[in-house]
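User: Mind token order:
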Amino acid sequence: VFIAQSRASGSHRDVEDEELTRIFVMIPKTYTEEDLRENFKMYGDIEYCSIIKNKTTGESKGLGYVRYLKPSQAARAIEECDRSYRAILAEPKNKSSESFEHEYYSSNTRQEPRGNTLPCCVQPEFCSFEKNESRIQEPLSRRLSVVSRLPFTQEQLFALFDLVPGLEYCDVQRDPHTNSGYAVIQYSTAASAIYAKYKLHGFEYPPGNRLTVIFLDDGSDSSE
């Protein structure tokens, strides 16, 4: 989705490279740059690898960057590498790297599922929904509300939510006073809507802009 959006916008090659070819990963503190390259070279041609180190002690912080020659190679690395690497697209270099690293590290050391990838397999937490009010506070339905502090287009949101099978329609609206984004999404089954909410609530699209996804009452019997 990121690659398609970038190319459609007619962005220059250097901007596309900066935003779409560099990934940020969590690694063992024993890794060298050669270890990092060895573990990620299978996904494409690597331009460079770097490990973030403590400026005082010179010890690895357990974080690193890998830059590929093509956006498609970076995308493949994010999708296919081991989930323990917590791979995501890196912030452009002109943004504060230290604040990005701190936010990334603190968010990925929590126990809740995070990250900007959509694994093909359903994670165990998704399979363990219990029918009790302490776990599920909101009514379930086939319809979702999506809110964003940044506007988005119909095509962008459709491409994102169509990754979950069963998408019936996507209606994007914009608040003229706040310029924020709002959309209503509907799936053919409640199961698809539940999975889409589970995977895309909190998803950063575009990077740095977190989506809020909640259920909307569609008049159906949520007990099903």
